């Protein structure tokens, strides 16, 4: 299976290296020369966007749906250049409406589509331990199983094209909500004299536990590292997409709108470039807690 990975940031670059180490024939591509040079220095074959090789799979890891659309539709584009029968896999967190529109064009052009947004951050991408939400034809999922298995510890097929991106937005909405709620809970306990680590141990033994209380708080917040590799700007983008999806379905989701407002209340605390776990910092500060041990604006460790 020949794979071209388009987008060599922290996620795409690590996924490309993981697949390469697993024995796949992988070529990486990125619009930035520096990204291609960095991956070439790590032993990966690279190509400019105008020189993509014919491949069985084109795996996209891009910031937004706008970049996904550009790669698929604009000249030179995959609709015109990808071999018939090849698969376009979008691992970005994209707008489901746009994903379904692009999927229809991809299928009409004789290609296959799979949306496969991921969780687990750069560390999960580097270790092949990602979580993946899959939207597409079951036959496409089965065809790509060897590749998906090399990339992920858990993968869930949730429906047709766009479904993976719908569930990813739902997941990130819950994560964003849990960060705010858990920060408030820890702040309440700390102000009342309970050590934050002890509070989290208690929460994680009860029904209030979540991935945020079990993973985010100990690994990235209490440690002061704030280096998850996912920025506040990306979470705000995902929340806006979730809000737009709800509006498009004529849903009145009051809590979602409160969470969106909470994440946008102060664009500097955290700044878009800060690690997304910093959303807890202003709340924790009310109890005199400051776990920041380094400049939060520093680039997350690769």
TrEMBL record:
Domain 3-hydroxyisobutyrate dehydrogenase-like NAD-binding: 162-279
Protein name as it appears in the record: NAD(P)-dependent oxidoreductase
Keyword Lyase: no
Organism field: Salinicola endophyticus
Annotated ranges, domain 6-phosphogluconate dehydrogenase NADP-binding: 2-159
Signal peptide start-end: none
InterPro entries named among the record's database cross-references: 6-PGluconate_DH-like_C_sf (IPR008927), 6PGD_dom2 (IPR013328), 6PGDH_NADP-bd (IPR006115), HIBADH-like_NADP-bd (IPR029154), HIBADH-related (IPR015815), NAD(P)-bd_dom_sf (IPR036291)
Entry keywords, A to Z: NAD, Oxidoreductase
Pfam families assigned: NAD_binding_11, NAD_binding_2
């Amino acid at each position: 299976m020949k794979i071209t990975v388009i987008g060599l940031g922290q996620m795409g670059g690590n996924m490309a290296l993981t697949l390469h180490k697993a024995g796949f024939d992988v070529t990486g591509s990125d619009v930035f020369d520096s990204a291609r040079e960095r991956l070439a220095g790590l032993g990966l074959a690279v190509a400019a966007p105008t020189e993509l090789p014919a491949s069985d799979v084109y795996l996209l890891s891009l910031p937004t749906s706008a970049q996904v659309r550009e790669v698929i539709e604009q000249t030179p584009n995959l609709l015109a250049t990808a071999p018939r029968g090849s698969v376009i896999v979008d691992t970005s967190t994209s707008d489901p409406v746009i994903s379904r529109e692009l999927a229809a064009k991809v299928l009409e052009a004789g290609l296959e589509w799979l949306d496969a947004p991921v969780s687990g951050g750069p560390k999960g991408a580097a270790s092949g331990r990602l979580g993946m939400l899959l939207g597409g034809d079951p036959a496409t999922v089965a065809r790509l199983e060897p590749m998906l298995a090399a990339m992920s510890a858990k993968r869930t097929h949730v429906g047709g094209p766009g479904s993976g991106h719908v569930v990813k937005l739902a997941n990130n909405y819950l994560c964003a909500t849990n960060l705010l709620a858990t920060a408030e809970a820890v702040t309440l306990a700390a102000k009342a004299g309970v050590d934050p680590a002890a509070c989290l141990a208690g929460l994680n033994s009860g029904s209030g536990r979540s991935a945020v209380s079990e993973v985010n708080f100990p690994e990235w917040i209490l440690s002061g590292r704030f280096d998850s590799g996912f920025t506040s700007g990306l979470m705000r983008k995902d929340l806006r997409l979730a809000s737009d999806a709800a509006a498009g379905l004529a849903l009145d989701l009051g809590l979602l709108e409160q969470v969106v407002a909470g994440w946008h209340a102060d664009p500097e605390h955290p700044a878009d470039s800060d690690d997304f776990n910093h959303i807890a910092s202003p709340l924790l500060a009310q109890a005199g807690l400051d776990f920041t041990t380094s400049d939060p604006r520093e680039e997350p460790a690769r």
